[in-house]
Amino acid sequence: MYKDFVVKKSTIPGSGKGLFINRDVKKGERIVEYLGEIINWKECDVRVDKDEGGYVFFVNRNKCIDAFHTPEALARYANDAKGLSKVKGLTNNCVYEVYKKNGWIKAVKDIKAGSEVFVSYGAEYWRDIRYNIKIEEKRQKEAKKKK
CATH number for the domain including 11? Predict the structure, then answer.
């Protein structure tokens, strides 16, 4: 399955790496399982406080899949086309899905070989990211004033 993918620079500016598929995919196909360490939601909160968040697939409060320390887990590289930097013409082509108590990325449209895999992170994720950016900008302004 991993031979079907390549991780390289995303087509979304500022997004780092992206996940690309090397074969045609049909709408409705589960294309890659979300792998990582299995933890509970309480442990997720602890890791976020240590700035070790951002790669968690929530199955239920007792099962979260954390790929933060698992760079070989390919699904973690799928970006959201509706994120901070939008590119005209790019839209999400996949969704996250729980199937048999595991996390998957599933195609919601046909995808051509060579395309980047895009999946929605959800409005709550982007609201939190924007909030954290504002806090960091405010902290940096205050630090400059003290100099």
Answer: 2.170.270.10
Tens of pLDDT, residues 76-101: 999 999 888 788 999 999 999 999 99
- What was the pLDDT predicted at 64? 93
8 is in which domain, residue-wise? 2-35+73-121
67, burial (CB in 10 Å: exposed 0-12, middle 13-18, buried 19+): buried
The length of the chain, given as a count of residues: 147
pLDDT at 53 over 90: no
Residue with tokens 């996949």: 94
Q: What is the pLDDT of residue 1?
A: 54
Residues 6 or more apart whose CB falls under 8 angstroms from that of 116 comprise 10, 11, 18, 19, 20, 79, 90
Query: Contact at 8 Å (CB) between 84 and 108?
Result: no
Q: Is the residue at 15 inside a domain?
A: yes
